[in-house]
C-alpha cells in the first residue's frame, strides 16, 4: 500500500497536468479566435490551418535556422536581400507587387508565427499579402520556406527579406 506522501504526490502531479492541459486548450482557443478574426470568410481547413505544437515548433526552429535572429528580432543588417517599407506609404500594394514580381508567387505555403503562442498558422502566402494589415503585429513573422521569404513588422515598418 502506498504511503500518504506518494498518493499526495500523484494527486498533485495529476492536478498539475490537468492545469497544463487546460492552459494549452485556452491558448489553442485564443489562436482559433485569432484565425477567425484574420480570415473571417475561410471555408475549408485547407485554406487556413492551425498546426500542432510539434509541427509549429519544427517550423519555428526552421525559421530561426534560416534567418539571422538577434534579441530584437531579425538582424536586418545581416540580410543581403531586403526591403523595408514605412507604415506611411501604401505599402500593401507595393508589398504585393514586390513579392509577386520577385518570387512569382503562386500557391506557396506560408506560416504566421506568433512568438506569444505555441501554435503556428498555415495558409497560402497570397492570402497573407491581401490581409497584411490585419496580420501585422510586432512579435509576429510571416515565413514562406519554399521561396525563403520572411516578413517582420518592426516598429511602424514592414521588413521583407529573402534568400536567393
Structure overview:
This protein is an alpha+beta fold. The chain has one domain. 43% of the residues lie in helices and 23% in strands. The protein is built from 5 helices and 9 strands; from the N terminus they run H-E-H-E-E-E-H-E-E-H-H-E-E-E. Strands 1-6-5-7-8-9-4 form a 7-stranded antiparallel beta sheet, sandwiched between helices. A hairpin with a 4-residue loop joins strand 8 and strand 9. The longest helix is centred in the first third of the chain and has 35 residues. The chain is elongated and about 70 Å long. The termini are far apart.
- Morphology: elongated
Largest beta-sheet details? 7 strands, antiparallel
Helical percentage: 40-55%
Oligomeric state as shown: single chain
* Strand elements, count: 9
Rg, please?
Answer: 19 Å
Unreliable stretches covering 5 or more consecutive residues = none
H/E series: HEHEEEHEEHHEEE
Offer a few descriptive terms.
two-stranded antiparallel sheet; 164 residues; alpha+beta; elongated
Amino acid at each position: 500500500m502506498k504511503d500518504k506522501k506518494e498518493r499526495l504526490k500523484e494527486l498533485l502531479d495529476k492536478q498539475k497536468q490537468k492545469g497544463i492541459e487546460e492552459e494549452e486548450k485556452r491558448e489553442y482557443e485564443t489562436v482559433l479566435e485569432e484565425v477567425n478574426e484574420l480570415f473571417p470568410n475561410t471555408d475549408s481547413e485547407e485554406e487556413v490551418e492551425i498546426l500542432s505544437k510539434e509541427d509549429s515548433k519544427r517550423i519555428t526552429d526552421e525559421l530561426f535556422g534560416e534567418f539571422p535572429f538577434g534579441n530584437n528580432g531579425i538582424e536586418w543588417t545581416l540580410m543581403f536581400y531586403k526591403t523595408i517599407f514605412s507604415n506611411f506609404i501604401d505599402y500593401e500594394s507595393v508589398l504585393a507587387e514586390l513579392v509577386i514580381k520577385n518570387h512569382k508567387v503562386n500557391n506557396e505555403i506560408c506560416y504566421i508565427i506568433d512568438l506569444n503562442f505555441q501554435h503556428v498558422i498555415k495558409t497560402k502566402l497570397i492570402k497573407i499579402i491581401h490581409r497584411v494589415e490585419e496580420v501585422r503585429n510586432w512579435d509576429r513573422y510571416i515565413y514562406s520556406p519554399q521561396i525563403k521569404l520572411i516578413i517582420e513588422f518592426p516598429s511602424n515598418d514592414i521588413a521583407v527579406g529573402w534568400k536567393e
